[in-house]
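FYI - complex with 2-oxoglutaric acid, inputs then prediction.
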Amino acid sequence: MGHVLSESQLENYRDNGFLVVEGLLDGDLVARARQVVDDLLSAPELDSVAEKEPGDASKARRIWAPTSRDQVFADLAVDARLLDAVADLIGEDLILQYSKLNVKAPHVGSVVEWHQDFAYYPHSNTDLVAALIYLDDATRENACLRVAAGSHKKGLLSHEVDGFFGGKIVSLDGVGVDASTVVDCPGTAGSVVFLHPLVVHASEQNRSDRYRRAFIPAYRATDAFPLYYGPHAAHNEPTAKLVRGKLSKTARSEGGTWRLPIAAAEFNSLFEIQEGAHLRADRKVATGYFSHEVDSAAAGATM
Ligand SMILES: O=C(O)CCC(=O)C(=O)O
């Protein structure tokens, strides 16, 4: 079981905090996934399935919890090729923490600002990995992922805006990340970008006339336990499930102090918090860590 990644790929991941594996998943499977996305996006109940682009309500930017909407995504998230690679990175005992699907429609695809995933859901250790699976060929033109290589070694960086969690790193320079370390992660459909939870990453607006869809299941070692149970992190937990190996009765901890993602107001997605959800009149202002009520349509992923 496992051991699909070479020693040089593992070294690459350890050094840079990310790894692109070209063509890990086959074309037929990925074509089926694209068809399901098209079907979901043309469904009449789109509002309960997807978050819309603020500039064009006819387009979606995020499909919530894709693994619970169609078997093709449930199967993809436990595909042996994918889990073998994840096991090589974080060990044989694996939980599927949550999943999401970013749509990046032509001409409108929302920006994803610089951030570290761990800032949204700190855990007792950093053996977590997100697998960004390209469903379309991705290049800089249609907003492939961009990563600050090696930034995972800098620890958890500030994602604060106006004294509260803002879901983004406002300036790379401001947190000591050298902009010259930023690299593009292009890949053909079926390629996977594996991301360490502390690596700083982002993607631009999709200015091309091509989609750049990505299905993103996120995994953790079974002995990595969430440290923060505020709503946008806690509501991933009911659907988190063991996908390989065994559950752990112990939590393994990495020493340190982790800033918690305490936001000023409720938010339903990474996009919303990065765009300043706390400034929106329709948002309930938080009065305590657990005071938010989150739209049930988003259940399963608010990152
Ligand atoms: O879809 C992308 O380009 C980036 C995805 C990402 O970083 C996220 O949703 O956390």
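Residues 102, 112, 117, 145, 201, 203, 214, 270, 303 surround 2-oxoglutaric acid (CB under 6 Å). The domain at 7-298 is CATH 2.60.120.620 (Jelly Rolls).
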